[in-house]
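User: Last request for today: this protein with flavin-adenine dinucleotide, please.
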Amino acid sequence: MPLAIRGGGHNVAGSALCDGGVVIDFSEMRRVEIDPERKTARVEPGALWGDLDAAAQADGLATPAGIVTHTGVAGLTLGGGFGWLSRQWGLTVDNLLSVQVLLADGSRVRAASDENDDLFWAVRGGGGNFGIVTEFEFQLHALGTTVLAGPLLFKAGQAREVLDFYREFIATAPDELSVYLNLRTAPRFDWVPEHLRGTDVLLLIPFYSGDLDAGEEVLRPLRSFGPPAADVVQRKPYLAHQSMFDAGVPHHWGY
Ligand SMILES: Cc1cc2nc3c(=O)[nH]c(=O)nc-3n(C[C@H](O)[C@H](O)[C@H](O)COP(=O)(O)OP(=O)(O)OC[C@H]3O[C@@H](n4cnc5c(N)ncnc54)[C@H](O)[C@@H]3O)c2cc1C
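Assistant: Here's the final one, the structure of the complex with flavin-adenine dinucleotide:
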């Protein structure tokens, strides 16, 4: 019988489901256990990134995650995973310490760099093809709870000169800084000034995870070039930034 495994259900190909078969749905297994001394997290396969982020942030900790809180930890990790913290601490799989895996022959094994290392290599990017992961263990990092982040909005007509400038700027920027670029129609969100909503814009979204005063200096050239039509960069809780873009991709839609 065909078998499919459902983590967060975010995969655009719908590969968490199958026709005429059985779906193993992990959505009620979302426990996250944090070890603040070792800075590690043990995570069940139905957990969403919002679950892990919230538990880790209680101790000021975090690991590179997705940028939408309702993405599944399982599918994102098995596919590699990247987010705001990736320039500083790598892909999500670079921070994976071990997995518990149920294999097709029914056996349960641990895979890590010191045990079943070929399987551990495969699950770090190879997707869900090698077994059912029943637990993920991650390395966490001392991020603190406040970051300097938020969108800079430029009018679409400024895009070429801003992107030329940005290419030079980011070449020497420190690893604590990540920037997402987005050419789009400005959404009708609270943080978008009324006069820009529905117009074509270049969104530059810097995220600085190091010392905040140093971050203000690093970001100064980017925030003054142009200048931007709106600057929503501010010091804010990491958890607030992590959920900032949720509204643009509502949970349970068919992606
Ligand atoms: C709105 C949105 C935002 C996104 N943002 C990011 C981002 O910032 N960074 C990023 O890297 N990716 C991002 N992605 C991509 C996302 O990581 C992938 O779609 C990922 O597959 C989602 O994982 P999931 O557990 O939610 O999905 P699911 O659809 O549940 O699972 C994905 C695949 O993994 C398999 N699988 C799930 N759980 C297990 C398990 N326990 N054992 C074995 N196989 C399993 C499933 O069978 C399926 O094939 C985003 C996707 C969307 C829709």
